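PT: before anyone asks, these are the final sequences, not the draft ones from last week. 1511 residues across everything. Please model them as a single complex and drop the result in this thread when it's through.
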Amino acid sequence: MSLWVDKYRPTSLGKLDYHKEQANQLKNLVQCGDFPHLLVYGPSGAGKKTRIMCLLRELYGPGVEKLRIEHQSITAPSKKKIEINTIASNYHLEVNPSDAGTGDRVVVQELIKTVAQSQQIQSSTQREFKVVLLTEVDQLTKDAQHALRRTMEKYMATCRLILCCNSTSKVIAPIRSRCLAVRVPLPSVEEVRTVLTNVCRKEGLSLPGELAKQIADKSGRNLRKALLMCEACRVQQYPFSADQDISETDWEVYLRETANAIVSQQSPQRLLEVRGRLYELLTHCIPAEIIIKGLVSELLSNCDGHLKAEVAQMAAHYEHRLQLGSKAIYHLEAFVAKFMAVYKKFMEDGLDGMMF
Amino acid sequence: MDIRRFFAPSKPVVQKPAQNGGVRSVEDQKRNKAKPGSKTKSPETVEKSSVKRKKRAVLHSDSEEEEVEKKPKKSPQETQKPAKGAPPPKKHPVQYVSETDSDSDTFVSLKKPTKSDDNGLSKSAAAGPDKKATSAVSSPPKPSCRKGKVKSPPTPATPKAAASLPKQTHTSVLDFFGSSSIQRSDKKLVASTKRKAATQDMDDSQSDEAIARQLQMDEDLEKQLHDDEEFARTLAMLDEAPQPKKARRESGSPSKSSTGPAQLSIKISPVSGSQSRANSKAGAKGPSSKKSPVKTSSKLASMKRKEEENARKKHEGATKMVISPKKEPPRTSTSETQNVAKSGMPSTAKSEPVTTPVSKKISPKKAESVSPEDAEKKRVNSSAYRNYLNREGPRALGSKEIPQGAENCLEGLTFVVTGVMESMERDDAKSLIERYGGKVTGNVSRKTSYLVLGRDSGASKTEKAESFGTKIINEDGLLDLIRTKPGKKSKYEIAAEVENKKTPEPSRTRRTPQKTSPRKQTPAKKTPSSRKSPRGKAATPKQEPSSSGSLGAGAREARKGLSFDTAERHGASTTTAAPVPDTEGSSLLWVDKYRPHTLKGLIGQQGEQSCANKLLRWLQNWHTGNTKPAAARFGKFGGKDDGSGFKAALLSGPPGVGKTTTAALVCEELGYSYVEMNASCTRSKNNLKEVVAESLNNTSIKSFYSGASQTVSSKHVLIMDEVDGMAGNEDRGGIQEMISLIKQSKIPIICMCNDRNHQKIRSLANYCFDLRFQRPRLEQIKGAMMSIAYKEGLKVPAPALNELILASNQDIRQILHNLSMWSAKDKVMTYDQVKADAKNARKDMKLGPFDVCRKVFSAGNETAQMSLMDKSDLFFHDYSLAPLFVQENYLHVRPAAAGNLKCHLVLLSKTADSICDGDLVDRQIRSRQTWSLLPTQAIYASVLPGELMRGYMSQFPTFPSWLGKFSSTGKHNRTIQELASHMSLRAHVSKQAINLDYLPYLRSALLEPLQRYGADGATKAVQLMNDYDIIKEDMDSIMEISTWGGQPDPYSKLDPKVKAAFTRAYNKESHLTPYALQAVKKGRRGAVDAELGEGGLEQESQELAAEEDEDVAADAMVKQKKMKASKETTKQQKAGDSGKGKGKGKGKGQGKGKK
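LR: through. Structure below.
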């Protein structure tokens, strides 16, 4: 009785609901018997991981679904012990090196080496290479990425890498050039709707088209989220009604409240409150980029005219610095402070303009 | 004024009359006072008053030529006309005289040894060391310090001031100090002049003298008492309100106390004079004795004459000068007597005398008259304050040329600067005045000689100045003053010269009349002087510090405080010492050379409740105290704070305040021999045991010789110095051993450390009598330093010394080192030089991050003087914390620059931007180890925000919340990661997706059945958990993470019964997880406990306990390789033994072979 998202996750390339053309291409790729390193990227909830698992199944058969969690400990040259969890089948190894924090370079080096150095014995019945699936590659440190470069070439014979990340902007160019980049875009609203409707049908429910559309909109075309929302709606009220309340996640609500607080008053005290709220978001591990994005989209709706452009530009500026800096709160707060200053000025000037 | 007259004809006219009036009034006053005030005043008392007047006149003469003229007239007229005939010397001689005061101190010191002979018997053993010190001091200065003499005069004075006014604020002490010496000198001058004049009249006067002497002696005794009390009172007032005190004290004291001491001095002077004369070669001494009768009569007349004949007497002033050189010897003799006067009167600058009398008279009136107008004043004041806030800076900075004045031309003058100067900053003006020996105070008082008036000056100061008759000049006037005033030899130098002359003289015994006043514990109390003979001259308080080599300014008080030396009652002040050879200590560091040799010599340890005394009492009572039952011993709060329950004492305090010295002296004082172990000894556990235990059980050989075989244990002390240094491998276990040693010790143990709150020391502190040393106050140190500087022949201006003391953060040791270093370079320091050096010598004080933060944003004077480097240095007090503090607190600052909210927000935004820049730099620094960028970060993260936001902070700086948030972020991050790895087989998503997407819905999915169906939903929830391989602890962390903004956790809102049902359902079956549970072990135990407490499920716990037994063998470590498909079957297979030991942190994974 798992959640719908997982319950109805497609397991083969053929069953994928959207981007079927890409699925076909992948299928062809695999059917050739070999394929290059892959760099699969796309926004969260687009189905990257699902697609990869389908690909692996296509490659190795159902054996890849026999997964196990392994706990590995790797000793770094500095005698530091690094513990990391991996998910493995007989044919592949999935690891998220960024779990090891700054030790990710060692993980990449050691883990991949051990996997890649073992040859498949029965090459006749099996592929002669294993697959190492690295997730969240964009979180890797530069060191680890550079370590990856050499490994990718050296063990090409016995090992294929599939890198999975949200954005290639943080993947260094040498790696990008060594991989076949596969972008998995978000499904369109229509596709989301279709998926939702299908899932509901499988559950024996009837989903009104309007509600499906609303969910799709609200989820930002994030299919995973859409499905989770849909299920939440089901729990909340069934039969569905078209104008049903769609529950949002707590953090989204909280973020929106924060944005409203910024717009409703601009003062040092308010800035202090906002800081507290930003801290709350950050301690809940909401990524700063998402916070700033959420803020901007809310704030923009309260701005008009040229202020919109200005705020958007500001946001971009601070988001950039966010990446360069190390303490997210500084930059978020600076953005808020700047917005307050600009907004206050705008409002007062506007008032003055009206009075004269 | 006079000067003005000369240079700026217009002004003098106005001011002159006032002065004259003032003078007259003074005279009247004096007459009145002298006669009615002193009941039985002999002619001499009158004489005294007249003497005073003369002094004033003399003083005037120094500063202003016209007045000088007057004086000469008087003096010649009154006493000697022959003197006039002498060629006119310059004014300097007069000044010399003034400096002789200090000389007198030295004489006193000479006397002391003799005294000590008298008192020596009465004194307890404690006094002994003092004597030595004193002798050392007294004897050496003459031969050794040629230079020293120059400096010496000031030094003796200071200690006295410091001693007498321990609680005074810094400024007040300065005033007191600086002024006092000067006044004395004036008096002396007068006295001496008179005496000379008197010499001719000797025959007549002699007889009178004798009578007068007798009468006076009686009176004196009484008066002294009075004086002391009053003085004490004034001092007490001073303590209460530092600023007001001065003015009041000056106003009040001159009338009573000043007269008192002055009288004393005069009275005594004849005696001393006669004695000294007899002894001395100089004929000058003789004259002094003669003065009294003639003078008394003549004084009044002379005073009048003076006034009348303002205009002419320049020549005569010159004649006076002639006298002065001769006077020097007499001065010295008289000076002793004046010491008393000194103590009583913090005197003003030489020029002041004119003003002072006026002020005296006026002061009472003023108080009355002012009160009715208060209301109006307030209004005026408030507007004035507003103006004050708005006033601009100097308009024409640097437009006027700063004149190059003669050396010390402003010496003895007191200035008050008010308003804005046109051509210079106020600070510059201040340092300009100070450079030429003048003194700058904040408030107008009677002592103030000039009020320097700038633009937009405050009305109150002007009024006050007018009421006091203070001369008011403007900026140009000040510059003219500097330009035109003749330079003087510094009084220090003069004093030194005088001393040179004196030194050949045989030391005479002089005694001051004794005060029988009861000893008060108030700081104001004068030192008890020993009374020797009826005619004894007072050993003035000043003498002691100067003469005694000890550092203690308040030594006498200390003695009083010490209960043990009862014998001392009288003779405390007379510290004789075996003369210490001058050469001794020449190779020593000053710190050792001048290490106090008695408890009284300790700086800042003189109070009854001071650490030194507490320690002394503790040690005294140690053997009696520790015979008590053991139970009483270690009670931390048992009894009074005499520490009688403790076997050890712990002295803690900053470095350089004298902890070690105190401990050693206390031991010596009580005749204990001590074994000291400090950080240079290895103090590991074994070592301590062996060495210490051994040495403590030894018997000292000394006792064999002496024949008195003592058990060692009664007279030994173990001093463990620097216990906080017991660290590292060397001293491993040292503290523990110390504690056990203390527990068993049969002898007292004294431990010392710097940081009382250090982790290591804390355990030790429980067993120790806790004595915390504070830094001595500025004045306490200053007195001692002055005397040392004097002894070393180092001339340090008082302000410079202040600077130095503050710079080293009241670290006596460091101050001494600095002084020592200077003395190697140059014996005579100019003000500028010293000021610069003092700045260099400034001890880097480590500021706490809170102080740093406050300073970064603080506005006003504090930061106005700071250079960019200073500001960025703030950052470096702790470069890892400073930016955090700034970031945390910049929102609490109200920037002065922000007019309105909009402006404020803009500033905030700019600040935030700058802080961001700092963060970027920080990232660069830390990721690439480019530490050279730190200064850049300092600018961005601290200096710029400080500049932008400069203002005042509405609250105390708060500790950066970033640190806490960061760590809780990290914790949540780990939790989520663990969750993600647990769910990874089903969910296939990254932890971020888990956090953002899954968790909220998963939580509601888990709780929904429980909320909706209650206990019946439990199985459903458990089922879901199994599907996602979530264990109970994950459930808890889900609840924790998905709680927002302090909302209650929905799970905790569930009915306890439901929760219990849920827990039961969960425990009913085994949960096969695809991961090893070992890592979670610890967390689980905690979770289970919490759950038990919460639900109160004893039943459950019993079950758990039962199950536990079965499963003890269960292996938690088996790695599971599990296939979804096989899950069901395995469960069934294992169902039999499925009761999983979940309770005790037993791992619960079940070995499950899939393949």
